[in-house]
Inverse folding.
């Protein structure tokens, strides 16, 4: 069972990284749509890769560095370079995903003992673009993390807004969402209770002007925890 979970974690990392291609990617997407835990694993990888990208800052080396490199190359004798071996694509993709897993997850496990817990999968409503949102809760910071899967763009004059709807009650806005990357929402009030419905509606840019949903509900799902 342990090796099987590691295998699925590696596939989730490959999928989020974009190295899982062809029939394997299609099969994985089918399994992910029926497996909320696997979808949440993909969401965690997408969040990790996004944070890694945001931390990369390009640095332009001074011209003296290039001069030293050119001088060093001019002094080096020509060396025989053996022909490159043909790479095994599947192994390289798995190895890259596994290596990134070690680099990203091990420091997190050492520094952060608690991780956000998946609490809901928001599926597309009838007539809405296909896609899903994975909702994770961080009880220590009282925040929600929403990660889009197969996200669809919205018009520049529109925004996506998240609502918490109690059984038989009125929707309460939890904030606006970014359609292309994970969004962390700090909750001003208490965490919604299990049995609430979380819904994402299409609103005018900046959010609903009335404090209640005014546009179509594109995604929704029940809060499980």
């Amino acid at each position: 069972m342990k090796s099987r979970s590691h295998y699925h974690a590696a596939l989730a990392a490959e999928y989020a990284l974009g190295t899982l291609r062809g029939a394997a990617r299609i099969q994985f997407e089918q399994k992910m749509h029926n497996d909320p835990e696997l979808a949440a694993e993909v969401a965690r990888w997408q969040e990790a890769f996004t944070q890694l990208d945001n931390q990369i800052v390009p640095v332009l080396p001074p011209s003296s560095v290039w001069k030293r490199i050119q001088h060093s190359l001019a002094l080096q004798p020509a060396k025989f370079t053996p022909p490159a071996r043909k790479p095994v694509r599947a192994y390289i993709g798995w190895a890259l995903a596994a290596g990134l897993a070690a680099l990203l997850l091990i420091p997190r496990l050492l520094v952060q003992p608690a991780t956000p817990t998946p609490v809901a999968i928001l599926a597309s409503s009838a007539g809405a673009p296909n896609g899903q949102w994975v909702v994770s809760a961080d009880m220590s910071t009282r925040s929600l993390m929403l990660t889009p899967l197969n996200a669809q763009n919205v018009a520049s004059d529109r925004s996506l807004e998240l609502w918490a709807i109690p059984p038989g009650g009125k929707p309460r806005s939890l904030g606006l969402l970014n359609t292309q990357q994970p969004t962390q929402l700090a909750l001003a009030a208490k965490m919604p209770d299990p049995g609430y419905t979380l819904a994402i509606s299409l609103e005018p840019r900046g959010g609903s002007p009335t404090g209640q949903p005014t546009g179509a509900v594109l995604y929704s799902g029940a809060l499980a925890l």
